[in-house]
Structure formats: structure tokens, C-alpha cells
């Protein structure tokens, strides 16, 4: 791969910077800079998606014929990094980065024509119905039933850890349509209209206090068979393909690099354990250098995946490697962020942040008092939220098993 920047790349960078400077309002920048997890404030995220869509940049990794961008690897990297540097809020990955790829590969033309344009505009907003109370990392153990009844599947059961179920108007879900054969067989991938009678949503309060995750209950919910992606009983094939994009279909390195730079900046002003500033402390500096080096390795691996995507391929087993590295790096960085924040970073002050969902049972001070700086208020929420990173999208232990089998033949 040629990673050197050409004159065209530099011109593209300037174009992106000009666009971000013109379109990112102070409110949108605040929502991006004060995110407490991988999810930004929902309203800010949707507003930013509309702005990107008007420019044709909402889904740059999609095939061009469906609204993607004919960008080089370097241009993808430039756009991601410049967006992070400018403080742009993140977009929900459920539609654009995940189910859209499954629809493009396995969907009918009618499904593509209906869903893809509406995903781009935000008119269709997806949540993911995978995990169940007894089927998390062992996803093939799912039991939510879908019984055939004429032109419909009648779905009964529940899904858990469903991000933004209260905001979503559609869900992509895995349901059990047969119980014969191996547990990976008899699973079907369906798109569910969340306004269908029989659906009940109950928010879950996370360690951070945010209500982003939910449990969703289905009581004889009728889903048209026309909403099946792929074939009935062969949803595991679709799910495996989609999970590659969930685990490694984006570029995490730029955001992690920006976080490392921000930590270095604040550590240069915070007191160290033996006098001086924290950045001069050998133990802290060594840990920061380690995560910076590992982030550079991640960046190269992401280039390889982007190259595969640009060539019409998919991430494959490399997505498991990216998922492991990116989530463990993010956890290491949030630990350093907490260390840099010091005692004031231990205070629970969500009113100074822009969380991805409502904060349960928290009453903000009437005068808006904040102990420390906003980034110190973000630190504990980011730390708590990132503990889940090595679990969601298939635990990192599962990912290591996949790599051992697929790459090492074990």
C-alpha cells in the first residue's frame, strides 16, 4: 500500500476541513467532544447525518451505486481523522455501518430500494436484536421463536442490550425458525417494524447511569416474510457477514489517536505524583507511549481492511483482530484519561457531558456547578462505558477463538 499523501489527498483534506468548519455548529462540536461512549447524543447524531447526507458523505464505505463515495484509503482516513479532530458527533453504526451491508449483499431489490435511501436520510433508524438473556457471546444459542403463519412469521421472546431501541423505528433481528440440526441452523434474519403491535421496550440503567441499552419483549409479533434478509433458516450466514462489519468495518484508529493526543495535552498540565507534571512521570509516559504505538499498528491493520472493502471484499477474520485491538486500546486509554483527570475525575457529573441516552435518577445542580473541567466529567463515564467494549459484538475471548481457528488452523 502506498500511504504517502499526494497533492490530491492534501486538496481533499483541505476540502474536508472547510466543510467541517462551515457545517459543524458549536452545539454539534460540543456533542462530539463530550461524548461519554461510542454513541453521541441522538438528536445531534441525526442532525449531523442529515448534513453529511446532503453532501453525499453519510455512508462513504457503501458501494457508489447506493450512495457511497469513490474514495481512496487515504481519503477515508483523512475524513475520519479530520472529523474527530473537529469534534464531529458520531453516527449510529446500526444502519449505515452494519445492516446496510447485509441488505446490499443479501437483500432483494425491493428491500434495497426501500431501506437504503431511508437509512441515509435517517427516516429509517435501526436497532440490533441479537443478544438474549441466555444467548450473548454464544449467539447461536438464541431461542426467540418465529413460527410460520401464512405470509408472516409470528415472533415471541425477548432481546436484551438493545442499543437505542427507544429511538429506533426498525430492528434487524435473529429469530429461531427451526430447532432441527445444529444450533447455527434454523436461524432467520428479519427486519422488524418497531411500531408493530406486541412489542414492549424496557430501558436498562448502565453503570454510567445512562439509559442507552434496553430489553425488548415480543408477544406474538407478526413480521412479514417479505422482511426476511436472505433465506429462511439461513440467517446465520447473513449474521456472520454483518458481524464482520460490526467488529471491524470502520476506522477506530483516528479516534483513538485523537484521544491519546488529548490525554498527552492535559497530562502536560496536571500535577505528577513526584512533583512536576504528569506527562514527565516515567510510569505514565511509558503507558501512554505503549498505547500510541499500538494505535499506529491498528491504523495499518485498518488500512488493510479498507483496501479489502474498496476492492469489493469484506473484512473476514481480520475484523476479529481489529475488534480485539481497538476495544482493548480504548479501555487502556480511558484508564489513562481517569489517571490524568485525578480526584476531580471521580465525581459523577453527567450534566457537564453529552451522553448517548438519558441519565437515570440524576438531579443536576441548579447552578450547573462543575468541579473541574468538562473533560474531567466525561472521564468516569467513558471509563465505565468502555468496560463493555471487550464484551459487545462477541467477547474478545470469542474473537481469539475465531482467529485461532481461521488463521492458525487450531
UniProtKB/TrEMBL annotation:
Cofactors (names): FAD
Record-level Gene Ontology MF annotations: flavin adenine dinucleotide binding; oxidoreductase activity, acting on the CH-CH group of donors
Keywords: FAD, Flavoprotein, Oxidoreductase
Occurrences of domain Acyl-CoA oxidase/dehydrogenase middle (ranges): 127-221
Every Acyl-CoA dehydrogenase/oxidase C-terminal domain range: 233-406
Sequence similarity: Belongs to the acyl-CoA dehydrogenase family.
UniProt-recorded name of the protein: Acyl-CoA dehydrogenase
Taxonomic lineage: Bacteria, Bacillati, Actinomycetota, Actinomycetes, Mycobacteriales
Amino acid at each position: 500500500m502506498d500511504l504517502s499523501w499526494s497533492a490530491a489527498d492534501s486538496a481533499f483534506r483541505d476540502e474536508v476541513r472547510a466543510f467541517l468548519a462551515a457545517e459543524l455548529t458549536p452545539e454539534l462540536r460540543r456533542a462530539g467532544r463530550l461524548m461519554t461512549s461510542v454513541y453521541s447524543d441522538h438528536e445531534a447524531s441525526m442532525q449531523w447525518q442529515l448534513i453529511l447526507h446532503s453532501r453525499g458523505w453519510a455512508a462513504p464505505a457503501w458501494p457508489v451505486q447506493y450512495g457511497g463515495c469513490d474514495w481512496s484509503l487515504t481519503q477515508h482516513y483523512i475524513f475520519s481523522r479530520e472529523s474527530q479532530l473537529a469534534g464531529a458527533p458520531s453516527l449510529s453504526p446500526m444502519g449505515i455501518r452494519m445492516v446496510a451491508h447485509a441488505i446490499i449483499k443479501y437483500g432483494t431489490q425491493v428491500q434495497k430500494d426501500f431501506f437504503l435511501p431511508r437509512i441515509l436520510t435517517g427516516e429509517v433508524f435501526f436497532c440490533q436484536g441479537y443478544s438474549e438473556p441466555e444467548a450473548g457471546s454464544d449467539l447461536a444459542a438464541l431461542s426467540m421463536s418465529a413460527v410460520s403463519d401464512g405470509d408472516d412469521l409470528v415472533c415471541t421472546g425477548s432481546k436484551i442490550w438493545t442499543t437505542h431501541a427507544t429511538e429506533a423505528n426498525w430492528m434487524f433481528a435473529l429469530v429461531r425458525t427451526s430447532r432441527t440440526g445444529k444450533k447455527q441452523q434454523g436461524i432467520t434474519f428479519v427486519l422488524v417494524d418497531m411500531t408493530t403491535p406486541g412489542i414492549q421496550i424496557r430501558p436498562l440503567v448502565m453503570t454510567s447511569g445512562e439509559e442507552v441499552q434496553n430489553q425488548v419483549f415480543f408477544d406474538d409479533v407478526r413480521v412479514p416474510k417479505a422482511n426476511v434478509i436472505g433465506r429462511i433458516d439461513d440467517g446465520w450466514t447473513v449474521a456472520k457477514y454483518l458481524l464482520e462489519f460490526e467488529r471491524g468495518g470502520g476506522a477506530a484508529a483516528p479516534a483513538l489517536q485523537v484521544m491519546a493526543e488529548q490525554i498527552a495535552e492535559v497530562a502536560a498540565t496536571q500535577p505528577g505524583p513526584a512533583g512536576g507534571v504528569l506527562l514527565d512521570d516515567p510510569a505514565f509516559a511509558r503507558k501512554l507511549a505503549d498505547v500510541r504505538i499500538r494505535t499506529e499498528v491498528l491504523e495499518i491493520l485498518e488500512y488493510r481492511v479498507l483496501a479489502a472493502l474498496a476492492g469489493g471484499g469484506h473484512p473476514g477474520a481480520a475484523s476479529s483482530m481489529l475488534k480485539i485491538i481497538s476495544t482493548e486500546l480504548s479501555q487502556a486509554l480511558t484508564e489513562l484519561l481517569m489517571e490524568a483527570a485525578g480526584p476531580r475525575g471521580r465525581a459523577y457529573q453527567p450534566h457537564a457531558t453529552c451522553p448517548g441516552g438519558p441519565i437515570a435518577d440524576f438531579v443536576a445542580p441548579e447552578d450547573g456547578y462543575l468541579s473541574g473541567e468538562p473533560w474531567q466529567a466525561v472521564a468516569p463515564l467513558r471509563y465505565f462505558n468502555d468496560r463493555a467494549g471487550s464484551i459487545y459484538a462477541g467477547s474478545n475471548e470469542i474473537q481469539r477463538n475465531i482467529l485461532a481457528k481461521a488463521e492458525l488452523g487450531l
